[in-house]
Automatic annotation (TrEMBL):
This is ATP-binding cassette domain-containing protein. CDD domains: ABC_NikE_OppD_transporters. Residues 47-314 form the ABC transporter domain. It comes from Raoultibacter massiliensis. PANTHER family: PHOSPHONATES UTILIZATION ATP-BINDING PROTEIN PHNK-RELATED. The keyword ATP-binding applies. The keyword tRNA-binding does not apply. It comes from the Bacteria. The lineage of its organism: Bacteria, Bacillati, Actinomycetota, Coriobacteriia, Eggerthellales. InterPro entries: AAA+_ATPase, ABC_transporter-like_ATP-bd, ABC_transporter-like_CS, P-loop_NTPase. Keywords: ATP-binding, Nucleotide-binding. GO terms for molecular function: ATP binding. It holds the Pfam family ABC_tran.
Length: 318
């Protein structure tokens, strides 16, 4: 695997050598420019993730060592799959962070651990809007986790069947989310639902139709409306445009940017498509076999990718 010379420094950014033990090659993380870093240090992150891991299998002494080489993400000794391995990142208020990587690199698992759809094996997640970031949310009771799901995070799944009840009306889908966060006013739920569906361009006459009767793009937009219904400070978006045709994709991407402008929501956007990340993300990290192999400002990643895998991804865009 080709590595980049240590003298190659991006304008205003520092390239930090790191050993990629999994690939046996040198990898460098591209850190944000000093001015961005200084600004960020003054702010408190909305979400801080440290050492997050998720494995499938019992593990063994060999793969307990984070430096142990694996066969992709699988332990050659015991067969445990390390879907997410020791991932760290921070998400700041109003920021969009992209997570890019090929199929099976661990992107969805990472997001599902944050949303408690899956149980993380280890790690820490601190969430400022919940309790000032005082406690590791992975260690909270199931009741508190439910509260976080209902008040802090809005989730949009790649597969709308996971995020919507296809036989309920679109308004009922939104109302269900609002009830989960404690709203009991039918008139408020109706007016808020209509407002949100209008904002995501679902015609008013379709508000009482079930999403089963909608196109893929419309279903994604109803999911987005539902995810926004409790005014969550953080949106988690998993491959929201995959499978949509190009013009519908463009509408959904515009909508996401508009939501950021209007509501200043922080977003974690998972995609295997660097084109989507390019449009949306301020910062990006690249995952391969469960690990983060490169991270930095999206422009830097696109203009001067450091890792051979990222280079391959970027050049495939050209
Ligand atoms: N229940 C499971 N049991 C065993 N392995 C699993 C399980 N769920 C996921 N994995 C493995 O975890 C790894 C990461 O999967 P994940 O779905 O997070 O990848 P991804 O990057 O989101 O891929 P895609 O873009 O295709 O959705 C894969 O190797 C997958 O096979």
């Amino acid at each position: 695997m080709e590595t980049v010379s240590a003298s190659c420094v991006i304008e205003g950014a520092t390239a930090v050598p790191r050993q990629d033990r999994h690939q046996g090659a040198s990898v460098r993380l591209v850190q944000p420019r000093a001015s961005v870093r200084a600004k960020r240090m003054e702010e408190t992150p909305c979400v801080s993730v440290a050492g997050l891991s998720r494995s499938f299998g019992a593990g063994c002494d060999y793969c307990a060592d984070p430096a142990a080489p694996l066969e992709r993400n699988r332990c050659p000794k015991c067969g445990t799959v390390h879907a997410v391995r020791n991932v760290d990142f921070e998400l700041y208020p109003g920021e969009i962070v992209g997570v890019v990587g090929e199929s099976g690199s661990g992107k969805s698992t990472l997001m599902q651990c944050m949303y408690f759809d899956q149980e993380a094996s280890s790690g820490e997640i601190l969430v400022q809007p919940y309790d000032g970031g005082a406690r590791n949310i992975l260690e909270l009771s199931s009741q508190e986790k439910r509260r976080i799901r209902n008040t802090v995070f809005g989730m949009v799944y790649q597969n709308p069947y996971l995020g919507l009840r296809m036989d309920y009306s679109s308004l009922s889908n939104i109302a269900e989310q609002m009830i989960a966060s404690g709203d009991r006013s039918v008139s408020h739920m109706r007016s808020r639902g209509e407002e949100l569906l209008g904002q995501v361009n679902i015609p008013a006459v379709r508000a009482t139709d079930p999403p089963r009767t909608f196109s893929g793009g419309m279903q994604q937009r109803v999911q987005i409306a539902k995810a926004l219904s409790n005014n969550p400070p953080v949106l988690l978006l998993d491959e929201v445009t995959t499978g949509l045709d190009l013009s519908v994709q463009a509408n959904v991407l515009d909508l996401i940017l508009q939501i950021r402008r209007d509501f200043n929501v922080s977003m974690l956007v998972v995609s295997h498509d660097l084109g989507v990340i390019r449009m949306l993300a301020d910062r990006t990290f690249v995952m391969l076999d469960g690990r983060v192999i490169e991270e930095g400002l999206t422009d830097q990643i696109l203009e001067d990718p450091q890792h051979a895998y990222t280079q391959q991804l970027v050049y495939s865009l050209l």
